[in-house]
Amino acid sequence: MKVLKQVLGIDVAQKELVVTLGRMVEDLSIELYAFKVFRNNEKGFLGLLEWVKKLTNDKIKVRFVMEATGVYHQKFAYFLDEKECEVCVVLPNKISNYMRTLDNKTVTDKTCSEAIAQFGLERKLDLWHRPKNIYRNLQQLTRERDQIVFERTMVKNHLHAEQSEAEPNESSILRISTRIKFLSGQEKEIKKEIENWVNKDVVLKSEIENICTIPGIGELTAVIILAETNGFELIRSKRQLTSYAGLDVKEKQSGTSVKGKPRISKSGNRYLRKAMQCIYQH
């Protein structure tokens, strides 16, 4: 029968891409017909494209569908964009919610790639576009700052422990204090660089000012939110934003005998979650 749609479902990990090819034919039935694993590097990307080309109808565009998994999907998404392929990057919660509706309760890399392929065949998805250069740079800078702040907190705790000793080592205290000063200097440099990027873009600056009208949101938090969501490209509602950050509530309840304590899922973007938790605490 005539093929209407072709999708490659990709489960992305740090070192490998687990993929499933699927197609929809004219009676609207779906067939998942090929499975393979490739390395998550340029050599693997090239091998994957060759494999897909051999197994698909070249008259119909293949849509490459993957989850937004931290940073591990980015290189492949950029590679596909350069090759002018159709790419869809889906929020992880959408795939996990979809998988709960399927008969297969076994969760493996293969079943995840199958579910992603089936999801891409059944749904009308927006095409992914690579982030603007400014969002990519702001994401790198805000993540670097987050790491520096984390390291400085650890060093400060070390300093406190050293100072609490019965006989503190003065040379150790001096070195630790110097390290704290160095990390604070690096954070200051990064914040200045972030400020320079923001001041370069009038539209971005206006968006940040608008977000900062929300109680509890400062300029840095607004920058993090925009950088991590690519200017809200993947986000269509407040509910999606909450879910992408992993701040959606999970609750396990069955009849009257099983009732788990509600808790946040923490299954989203940890940088975005950290920024948004500051808002909720406010």
Question: How would you portray this structure in words?
Answer:
- It is a single chain.
- This protein has a 5-stranded mixed beta sheet.
- It has 10 helices and 9 strands.
- The protein is an alpha/beta fold.
- Helices cover 52% and strands 17% of the residues.
- Strand 4, helix 2 and strand 5 (86-90) form a beta-alpha-beta unit.
- The mean pLDDT is 88.
- The chain has helices spanning 42-55, 74-82, 92-99, 109-122, 133-163, 170-200, 202-211, 219-228, 238-244, 270-281; strands at 3-12, 16-25, 30-39, 62-67, 86-90, 249-250, 253-254, 258-259, 263-264.
At a glance:
The protein has 282 residues and is α/β, with parallel strands linked by helices. It has helices spanning 42-55, 74-82, 92-99, 109-122, 133-163, 170-200, 202-211, 219-228, 238-244, 270-281, and strands spanning 3-12, 16-25, 30-39, 62-67, 86-90, 249-250, 253-254, 258-259, 263-264.
Essential attributes:
five-stranded mixed beta sheet; 282 residues; two-stranded antiparallel sheet; alpha/beta
- Rg on CA atoms, Å: 23 Å
Would you report the number of β strands?
A: 9
Strand content: 15-25%
Task: Count every helix, treating DSSP H or I runs of 4 or more residues as helices.
Answer: 10
Alpha carbon gap, first and last residue = 58 Å
Element order: H for helix, E for strand: EEEHEHEHHHHHHHEEEEH
The largest sheet is:
5 strands, mixed
- Spatial order of strands in the largest sheet: 3-2-1-4-5
Shape: elongated
Q: Structural class, please?
A: alpha/beta
Helical residues, percent? 40-55%
Report the uncertain regions: none
Mean pLDDT: 88
